[in-house]
Known about the structure:
Chain A is an alpha/beta fold. Chain A has helices at residues 3-22, 24-31, 57-70, 86-91, 106-110, 153-164, 177-185, 196-204, 233-252, 259-262, 269-275, 281-285, 291-299, 302-309, and strands at residues 34-38, 47-48, 54-55, 76-80, 97-98, 114-116, 121-123, 125-130, 144-149, 169-174, 191-195, 212-214, 222-224, 227-229.
Amino acid sequence: MNKSVFLGALTVAGLMAGVAAAGTMDDVKARGKLNCGVTTGLVGFAAPDANGVWNGFDVSVCRAVAAAVLGDQNAVEFVPTTGKTRFTALASGEIDLLARNTTWTFSRDVDLKFEFIGVNYYDGQGFMVPKSLGVSSAKELDGATVCIQTGTTTELNLADFFRSNNISYEPVPIETNAEAQQQYLAGACDVYTTDASGLAATRATFEAPGDHVILPEIISKEPLGPLVRHGDSEWGDIARWTLNALIAAEEYGVTSANIEELAKGTNNPEINRLLGTEGTLGEMLGLDKEWAKRAIAANGNYGEIFAKNIGENSPVGLGRGLNAQWTNGGLLYAPPFR
Amino acid sequence: MTLLTDPPKEQFRLSMLLYDTRYRSATFQVIALLCFMLLAAWLISNTAQNLAELGKPIDFGFFGESAGYDINQRLLDYDSQDTHLRAALIGLLNTLVVAALGCATATVLGVTVGVLRLSNNWLISRLMTVYVEMFRNVPVLLWIVFIMAVMIETLPAPRAFRGDNATASMLLGDSVALTNRGVYIPEPLFSRSLGDIHLLGESSLRFNVSLDLIVVLAVLIGGVWVSQFIKRRADRIQESTGDRPTTWYLRLGVIVVPLVIVLAALGFYLGHPELKGFNFKGGTHMRNSLIALWLALSLYTAAFVAEIVRSGIMAISSGQTEAASALGLRSNRIMSLVILPQALRVIVPPLISQYLNLTKNSSLAIAVGYMDITGTLGGITMNQTGRELECVLLLMLIYLIISLSISTVMNWYNESVKLEER
Ligand SMILES: N[C@@H](CCC(=O)N[C@@H](CS)C(=O)NCC(=O)O)C(=O)O
């Protein structure tokens, strides 16, 4: 056999595999479905309802991206991931986008080679304890048994917090939120610690939420955001600007109720560019004019998504706080659409 | 003059590789091997290329970085500032602990059940059948999770032990506490301890050896050795005179008396667990994750061991039993002197596989949050550093080494019980 022909063929095959892996958008379009990594179930953020339909704050990001790219917010395959499996799932290409309460950190961005496309929830790590324990500060937790999800930033923060306060604890590593809830409610751990939003979401599902308090200490910064793999900037741009579109829509007052009306043209050029009646933003992304319109129409703008899933009038009951628009003193600030 | 000429010396031609049956199979084997090696080379180069494209070339440097996470069950000192390498070592020790505990328990339980399953007592043999079928036919993961859930949900939390109207109380004279966080038992302590020897300095593999333990072990081994000596002497006397001197108190004495003296000299006492703050302090804490994993693995594997033991015993012809009882041996002596030594030859090889299975199954530990090597190196470390390939390769290598070590040891044992052909 001609060795060089054979080796040449191998090289070509290898190169083609590399090329095929680069175009996530083409893959998604060819597949007709977006593979989106979510939690294994955290009410308000991502959980299947009684009919098996996924709902929640993070799920809405997946749906918005699917609506922008594929024109159908239901063209999403939700892949439940644990704190530990999520990065492998993304790095291996099993999922195209990870929207799972994931904290943007330096090492995840730089060392693990991911690209965070923004922040959809500014959070911090908190502690939840049963009221009956009579604890009022996290500093009183010396010797406590703490339930902690493995493979999270919260696991590292926890170690740092107890070490810097010179107090001891007994970690109980847990895979999923559901297991943590079971152990915590049975008293197998005194404390459950994770992102404060996750604590609120978990507590909302308890039979007697009033029996549990979230301690005042917030021991870390947890900017939670969706992420994609390094190295495919086109796909990263699509995800990033879809999220920005949701945030900008709230700022400009574009809602799922008035979007059809506004899409006929307004005298605000920024809205017009966002909704595609002016300019060629969609084309630049490799999408059509109405990509953002579809993304917003899917589940509403950022504010609507927040209110419906985790807002003050939902069972989870989180205030906007840091997650208000910059115009209201919050941190949400979408860059200009131009 | 010769009538028979030598057969014509055949010239080797290339086509013979294919058409000559003497060479054909070798040719095909070489081709298959080449193809296999090409495939492997392709896989490796493809992986390396893809990793390089991702910007993550293979690199084990992360081992020296600090791990940042805590581990609850640690046999050596460890804190979150230690390296990933040390975290892996702590995990490895946890794997070995649960594997050793599991193998020992599975063997004892399995042999007992296997023998009892052959019992003439209908009830006992049926009960053992039920046990074997129940554990053999349900995945071990379910048993692990089930035992854990039962412990968490049924046992009292530590705070139930507190106050005047405590709903739970400690057992055995306040020395043992069963809680839903695990079992606290007394721990052996020495008030006049000799201290530890510190080995390997400050490196990630450093460890301490307790001098007390070494002394106690040395005395114990010495005692057993002397006791063996007394036994051999008794054997000799029995052989020459026919009378066996009574030696059991001597043999027991040489083991127990020095041990008691040494323990007293070291100031041996039992430290009892006590409820302090959120948890019990003192004593040895066997976490519910360890107990769930250990119990489930041993109960599950014991079911298989029982079947192996049963088949081993049934492989010995019943004529042996009859012959032995004709010689006047009692039935338990027939079992221990005649049947089991022969049955072991049938039992040991499949038993090795069961030990290997148990050890590998211990990697299900993460289901209950037991921090074994899969939980540390293959779990948190892999997740925090993003070095999937390195961690998994290393993990495979470690399990391979553990398995091969078990096989080697068991094969030695197998050699020693093998039929000696004369
Ligand atoms: N933000 C942290 C923690 C994320 C995390 O694991 N959050 C929990 C609770 S807020 C969760 O989403 N659990 C859902 C599940 O178990 O699938 C990180 O990125 O490491």
